[in-house]
């Protein structure tokens, strides 16, 4: 399944996430990594030094998703700023502040 606006695909199906009892807030493109991580955590009695490799892979996936969303939001803000700037420049026939020769 493809998620709009993301480069990562959904690998885990809804049925797999329901069977693994993944909370709704965690059902994103990294859920396929959370399922084995939670199994490992339960098998190892949630000891913090266990399942480090699984946790690292899952957290890296989540970090990449956050960075992807931040870059997308930055592009949207830049486009809005350009549109606002063009609107301001296009509305006045005579600029209020004259442009200097060095600018």
What is shown here, in short?
The chain has 103 residues and is mostly helical. The protein has three helices and no strands.
Give an overview of the whole structure.
This protein is an all-alpha fold and about 100 residues long. The chain has helices spanning about 15-20, 30-45, 50-90. The chain is elongated, with a radius of gyration of 23 Å. The model has no long low-confidence stretch (mean pLDDT about 90).
What is the element string, with H for helices and E for strands?
HHH
Strand runs, count:
0
Q: How many helices does DSSP assign?
A: 3
Measured as a percent range, the helix fraction is 55-70%
N-to-C terminal Cα separation, in Å? 51 Å
> Could you say which structural class the secondary elements and strand pairing correspond to?
mainly alpha
**Main sheet, how many strands, which sense, barrel?**
none
Give the DSSP E fraction (strand runs of 2 or more residues): under 5%
Low-confidence stretches: none
Q: Evaluate the radius of gyration.
A: 23 Å
- Average pLDDT rating: 89
What overall geometry do the principal axes of the alpha carbons give? Answer: elongated
């Amino acid at each position: 399944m493809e998620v709009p606006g993301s480069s990562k695909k959904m690998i885990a199906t809804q049925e797999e996430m329901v069977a693994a009892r993944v909370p709704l807030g965690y059902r994103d493109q990294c859920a396929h990594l959370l399922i084995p991580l939670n199994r490992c955590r339960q098998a190892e009695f949630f000891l913090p030094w266990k399942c480090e490799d699984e946790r690292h892979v899952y957290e890296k996936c989540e970090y990449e998703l956050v960075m992807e969303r931040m870059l997308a939001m930055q592009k949207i803000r830049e486009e809005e700023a350009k549109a606002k700037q063009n609107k301001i420049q296009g509305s006045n026939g005579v600029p209020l502040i004259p442009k200097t020769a060095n600018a």
